[in-house]
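Data availability (excerpt). The following record was deposited with the supplementary files.
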Amino acid sequence: MANVSGLISPSIPTLKRRNQPSFGISRSGYHSFDKITKRVFLCYSTVEQGVPKHVSVTSPSESRVPRRLSQGCKLIGCGSAVPNLKISNDDLAQIVDTDDDWIHKRTGIRNRRVLSGKDSLTSLAVDAANKALQMAEVEPDDVDLILMCTSTPEDLFGSAPQIQKALGCKNNPLAYDITAACSGFVLGLVSAACHIRGGGFQNVLVIGADSLSRYVDWTDRGTCILFGDAAGAVLVQACDGNEDGLFAFDVHSDGDGQRHLNASMKEETSDERKVMFGSNGSAVEFPPRPYSYSCIQMNGKEVFRFANKVVPESIELSLEKAGLSSSDIDWLLLHQANQRIIDGVANRLNIPDERIISNLANYGNTSAASIPLALDEAIRSGKVQPGNIIAAAGFGAGLTWASAILRWG
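Predicted structure:
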């Protein structure tokens, strides 16, 4: 199984690796922090150019990571969009054997938004992206790259180019999809940082958008109660290394867990099937039957167990790489899958309830959209302030999981 360092590790990472080098990103790609110039710092210690030898940390929001990178990146704009149609737990009770109390106690969810009519995922993504650009005061023509993090594109070959077209980016910036389900947005942030630090990009739009309602079996109360549709976006901009806002990250995948959460391809059945012959005379089934994706299949108990184990471990690894502790975090922002998972991770990291960002009750699990959607609401409501440090983590199908320590603004 590959991790961020390119080394082989067990499916569940071991936290205490003090004797191993930490890894981060530079303009040239990945590097070991143990081998880079002394101008880069991972802890509060001696620094250069007139900066005090000791930084006094009086509160999490005032804490900073005094690192020196030749090129940094920061998050300066955000936006989100959701469908108009709201489906409550009571609405679901009309079509499946459940009720509001049963759903809320097990998940924390009250409502979710679902695409309907002429709504499209692409239009939601464009709406969210435009709001992020407006907040960042960046014109579409100044965007260098668009990363569409989605597992439910509206075109087999990807939705990102259509977003680029709809935004009116005249310079034809590169736009491509990232498929990593609920971890997609965090991986999009990491990818944006790599493009900026290593490729010279200036403005990168990272969009998380999914329409899982199209792949839900609405007669299966084990899955249909969980998912909703949404889009969220952030504008990541190049900056001086001293202003860098992505302190550290940790990314993983384990294909062995795919059996617990998937929406695999299936062959469509048909009684009318011609049997033809190949060029060598052997009988073959041709033309092949068309394929489509199945509804979401999930082993809830295994996914719950997986998330509660790997997410806090990943965040602790990212904090260690950044030279921070959980007390330095202003906000914990997890993929909005289940409130019990969010609470369990917060408890493991000793993060109090008042420092948790959660909007799960209103939207359910929106996959790659959940983190940017919750972030946008928290920023626009005034909860998250410029300079606040956020520990974010995504986890889900693949199985994949990823965490990042970042600063807003």
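Summary of structural features: The two ends are 34 Å apart (CA to CA).
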